[in-house]
Design brief:
The structure is a single chain. This protein is of the alpha+beta class. Among the domains are: 101 residues, Pdz3 Domain (Roll); 213 residues, 2-enoyl-CoA Hydratase, Chain A, domain 1, CATH 3.90.226.10. The strands form seven sheets. It has a six-stranded mixed beta sheet, with helices on both faces. Helix 2 runs antiparallel to helix 4.
Length: 510
């Protein structure tokens, strides 16, 4: 556990890192530019329109929705704040527990007071609320009363990305399978919640799960001693419904599929015939390159590209971290696809990362004009996500695949490319989590999530809580996965090969 002496120390380091990376990538892009001389649709097409909002506006909020997000990455940055989390609390609080609740309240209030981007909101709603709710927290005799008082104060903001995660749910979300969070072992299983069940959607190549003969479409019932349905039930009780709930429930499952390299994790699954099968996987080193960024936890970055049948290029990567591991091979892949009928960029499950990298990716698809994916507003400045054109840009059809686990920088890229008319979006609605935020551990054991900036996409839309709505809906289904079919990729290939793909070339760059 890390002791954070100031609520904003880690945040300032992360924002400074972003500013430096932004400038570095801008220079890198300019330097690289200077060196480089009718089928009927089986998918439903849905245009999206969201009225523009002003700089400080926020989408309507249904209570608070804690989630794992940010343009710094929605890989959760979890930090201790001066004390260890408590165990099981008695119905009536002790004097020490009351003191910890007050300390937790003070941490929440001071963090928002110092970090929120809207000074007027802080002045008119936040500061006046302090004494009223602090008195209620101090007088609370049970934990739920103290938490409710803090949540009521947070609700005065009427914004997403601010909320309290109860200690029990917090522990459920980030619990590794058998060992410490610092371990690098991974089962290599990707999952999604489909109709309330945890379904395997993909396996990493040569992973422990692949060696154990686990297959896409199978349902996971237990992981070690954890009954998955009971685990999800606890989180469903503690977290408001919505995309954030699905994000945290999925994270709770995947965290149990990680641990120390060499550890064994016992699984009970339902196969294609709904027969119960048992598998034991020996965790191996996680796929990709181990990287660190700023104040965030470690992350393993992987990248892949290949040609699909029909002359379509396919690119996928799991996070916007480490430019050398993503932007360099991305550029090489786009150049290799110069003659492709279209390019698919698969951002499903991509939690985002370094916001500036979205500009580096987008620049490969604009030739003549400087464009802007959107603008992020912090308390002290604006961060403009400006895309510099490239002389060797690819101008053919581009399809971006997204789902409910696409967040942060991945949403910024998808939303901006859609608003600029440069890509069709395929899959399911994204997480709606584009703001840079953190989740800190409070002295009383609860988690506190807070955002430090607002973001508006190129068309003036707030992605937060709204997400990016796909043009073509193509969700996973268990039946398709069991049959070895990926409906989103199939939809993208169909769109590129149809007349719709031809119409999506960039007219404004001609």
């Amino acid at each position: 556990m890390e002791i954070v002496t100031s609520p904003l120390n880690g945040l300032r380091r992360s924002l400074n890192t972003i500013r430096l990376t932004l400038n570095r990538l801008s220079r890198w892009s300019r330097a690289d530019n200077a060196r480089t001389p009718g089928t009927s649709a089986p998918f439903r097409i849905r245009p999206m329109h969201v009225p523009p909002t002003n700089r400080h506006s926020a989408p309507h909020r249904v209570r608070h929705r804690p989630s794992v997000l940010g343009a710094i990455g929605y890989i959760i940055a979890i930090h201790g704040v001066g004390c260890a989390p408590g165990g099981v609390r008695p119905p009536r609080l002790t004097a020490d527990q009351q003191r910890l609740n007050v300390e937790s309240f003070d941490y929440v209030w001071s963090t928002v007071e110092q970090a929120h981007w809207d000074r007027d909101l802080v002045e008119t709603k936040w500061r006046p609320a302090r004494d009223e709710f602090r008195t209620r927290v101090a007088a609370a005799t049970v934990a739920t009363e103290a938490r409710a008082a803090t949540e009521a104060m947070i609700d005065r903001l009427e914004q997403t990305h601010f909320g309290i995660i109860p200690a029990d749910a917090y522990d459920d979300i980030d619990k590794p399978a058998n060992s410490s969070p610092a371990s690098d072992g991974d089962a290599g299983i990707h999952v999604r919640l489909l109709d309330g069940r945890v379904i395997v959607t993909a396996l990493d190549p040569r992973s422990a799960a692949e060696e154990a003969d686990i297959r896409p479409g199978w349902e996971i019932r237990t992981i070690g001693r954890d009954d998955v349905s009971k685990l999800l039930g606890r989180l469903e009780t503690n977290i408001e419904p919505g995309s954030a709930q699905r994000l945290l429930m999925t994270r709770a499952v995947t965290s149990r599929l990680r641990g120390d390299v060499g550890e064994r994790v016992a699984l009970v699954l339902l196969d294609e015939g709904n027969r119960e099968v048992e598998r034991e996987v020996t965790l191996a080193a996680a796929r990709g390159k181990r990287v660190h960024f700023g104040h965030l936890p470690r992350f393993h970055v992987w990248f892949e590209s290949r040609r699909l049948d029909g002359g379509v290029g396919y690119i996928a990567f799991n996070g916007f971290f480490d430019p050398q591991s993503v932007l360099t091979p991305f550029g090489e892949a786009v150049r290799s696809f110069a003659d492709a009928r279209g390019i698919i960029i698969d951002l499903r499950g991509n939690p985002g990362g370094i916001g500036a990298m979205a500009m580096g990716v987008a620049s490969w698809f604009f030739k003549n004009e400087t464009r802007r994916l959107g603008v992020m507003h912090t308390r002290d400045q604006e961060l403009k996500f400006t895309v510099s054109p490239r002389v060797d840009a690819y101008l053919g059809p581009v399809a971006i695949l997204v789902d409910e686990l696409t967040g942060s920088t991945a949403e910024i890229l998808a939303g901006g490319m859609k608003d600029l008319g440069r890509a069709v979006i395929i899959g399911t609605r994204t997480a709606g989590a584009a703001l840079p935020s953190r989740i800190d551990r409070l002295p009383n054991g609860d988690g506190f999530q807070y955002a430090v900036a607002n973001y508006l996409s190129a068309g003036g839309q707030a992605l937060e809580d709204n997400g990016v709505t796909p043009d073509l809906e193509a969700p996973h289904t268990r039946e398709a996965l069991l049959a070895g079919r990926d409906l989103a990729i199939n939809a993208a290939v169909w769109w590129i090969q149809s007349s719709g793909g031809e119409r999506r070339t960039v007219e404004r760059n001609d």
